[in-house]
Write a structure and sequence with these properties.
One of its GO terms (molecular function) is ATP binding. The chain has 4 helices and 7 strands. It is an alpha/beta fold. The chain has a single domain, classed as Rossmann fold, CATH 3.40.50. Helix 1 packs across helix 2. The longest helix is centred in the middle third of the chain and has 20 residues. The protein starts with 7 loop residues before the first strand and ends with a strand.
Length: 142
């Protein structure tokens, strides 16, 4: 068995199937490495226009907390890993994940999230994180 580490494995969550696969794999790696696992959702810019309504910061946070809760429930059901924490942050997802990667041993992402162009081999957030993260990045193909 590996010695426990305090350096977390970070996984970006947006509610997509791709991010669910990333969470599944990140959980297996965290268990094998005896490392903490943090699932993070980035609520984006609080001035984003959503469904033709200006969404405030608290509404964005609440929406992303629901996305995280649904994703964790869909992936783990009742068997949630004991060392899993969930966090909602504000800001552009790529920028926030890159900043958070400074204190992570690994960043795990889905290949493509909810946005982006169909047919793209790598989403913009994954591409930016692969290019600029401060730790190794594992991109999970779904």
């Amino acid at each position: 068995m590996n010695a426990p580490t305090d350096q977390r494995i970070l996984v970006g969550i947006d509610g997509s199937e791709s991010s669910m696969e990333a969470l599944r794999l990140a959980a297996r790696l965290a268990e094998a490495l005896d490392a903490p696992l943090e699932a993070i959702a980035c609520a984006g810019d609080p001035t984003v226009l959503d469904a033709e309504l200006l969404v405030d910061e608290e509404a964005l946070r609440a929406n992303h907390e629901r996305i995280l809760a649904r994703t964790v429930a869909a992936v783990f059901g009742e068997d949630v890993p004991g060392r899993l924490t969930t966090t909602v942050t504000h800001g552009r997802p790529a920028g926030r994940l890159i900043a958070e990667s400074e204190t992570a041993q690994l960043l795990v992402l889905g290949r493509r999230g909810r946005g982006g162009l169909l047919g793209s081999s790598l989403g913009s957030v994954s591409h930016a994180c692969v290019s600029y993260a401060h730790c190794p990045v594992l991109v999970v193909r779904h």
